Amino acid sequence: MNYLDAHNHLHDARLAPHRAEIFAELKRIGVSSAVVNGTRESDWDAVTALGFGKPSYGLHPWHVRDRTDRWPDTLREILVADPRAAIGEIGLDRWVEGHDLAVQTPIFIAQLDLAAELRRPATIHCIRAWGALWEVLRERDLPAGFLLHAYGGPAEMVAGFVERGAYFSFSTHFLHDRKAAQRDVFRHLPIDRVLIETDAPDLSPPEDRNPRSLPGGLNHPGNIDLAYATLGDLRGLPAEQLERIVAENFERLFGG
Question: What's the start-to-end Cα distance of the chain, in Å?
Fold first, then answer.
């Protein structure tokens, strides 16, 4: 297989004690690339140092209050230094405690504008802020496209997001019983806009369907094979066909 993980955090310090085993397992099952997302200034260097897959750098809505005054310059410098790098994880979030869209939104917009200027794909996080997200995206041209990672928004909004350049990534977290609506959305998404992710070490699958385990309930990035198998079942696609489609989509959004 040629597995491609459209969204994870392999650089995360929580995975450090297990990283040698993780990389051995990824090689064994056939993970050829992944988009590794930084979420705050303090972890951008760790993404660079990892040296695996495609680096992505952004200021996540959960961490906007921890930013320094220099964050826009630092982000630009990192991106200019690596033409392969994407922008993310960025976004809007009304779920996190103490959320403030008035703080999150201008920072999100600044990063989208940088993505447009540098023609880089962006990875977007959104929880309970779909209307606010649409208000931002409908006014902007993002020529390199963007990923709505672990898409949990309404089916009714898909067409509008597609028109603006969206891709949508499927997660094994959607195997939880309470995520039936998300699974149904992925049954009907345009197949040329579908990607697959783990979000490791977060968004673990249900315990009874988790083929790998890490201490503390962390999600193993090797669970990408479960995500592929699950999405293939949902779409009625043979493994080889899904692998080819996802590879084409990944290449179109994130490049080779």
Answer: 17
